[in-house]
Amino acid sequence: MPQKLSPPIYKAIIEEAHAQGLRVAAHVYYLADAKQLVADGVDVLAHGVRVVPVDPEFIAAVKAHQVWYIPTLGLDESAYLFAEHPELASQPFLSHAPQPALAEQLADPAWRASTLSNTKKLAAAR
User: Fold this and answer.
1) In terms of residue numbers, what domain contains 51?
2) Does residue 38 have a pLDDT over 70?
3) Per the domain annotation, does 1 fall within a domain?
4) CB of 14 within 8 A of CB of 21?
5) Which of 45, 38, 42, 47 is nearest to 71 (CA)?
6) Distance of alpha carbon 48 from alpha carbon 19, whole angstroms
7) Co-location of 58 and 110 in the same domain
8) pTM more than 0.70
């Protein structure tokens, strides 16, 4: 399972990148992580907060620090769309798009069941 970078490591990355004139993007999921990254100087938040609605405090911080925010609205939805309707992957428009490993995953009944189960768990947690 992927692990988050610890604050000392990502702060060093942000500091060095800024010293080199580079912007720093971070993939986020949780609101608390996003808030801390903004406070610590990140320039871009990718995929946005997806567990709870963002609050006015977070919005104010993003604006104050001029952080770019990329919500990637369809990221999670696309997974359960194909889990609920696997026949979509065989439509001519999409059938040649995924690489073989992804096409195999989309056709796997176990993956579909797991994805739909996780979707229901996330909805219940909200």
Assistant:
1) 7-70
2) yes
3) no
4) no
5) 47
6) 26
7) no
8) no
